[in-house]
Amino acid sequence: VFTMLGVIGLILNSLVLVAFVKHKLYTRPNNVQLFSLALDDFGTALFVEPMVILSYIKPSLFTSEAWLCRLFSSLIHIFPWGSTLSIFILSVTRVIIITHPVKFKELVTARRIYLALSGKYLVLLGFVSISNVFWVTKFSMEYKQCFVNYNKFG
Length: 154
Hints:
5 helices, two-stranded antiparallel sheet, single chain, 2 strands, mainly alpha, 74% helix
């Protein structure tokens, strides 16, 4: 099931990305958001789903080295959360168009969307960096295993 979803997601999102780049559709705020969403979903299909499938086939593959442990832990968070935050930003713009239809073009500009999406990636990279360095992902040199502790503060 994961393999089919991954292949379908990869093909369809790559078609969307090619269409956006070929026809230069990334100038309007809505299109910029959809491009970002397609990019996150493409990253999920290209990196996350194969890594999850491989981790089921050979569990020790991503847990045997510290850098693979951190890479796996980072990628499984960056792209899916990026997709979720893209949908959140898209929802906020929909709320703005409903509540302020006259001022929408003044409030939601391509520049502000670019700033919001850039902020999204900075927050994601900051969260993943902090979580990998300080508390979520730990690598045991003694056992050569990767530990992800989601209940560190709980």
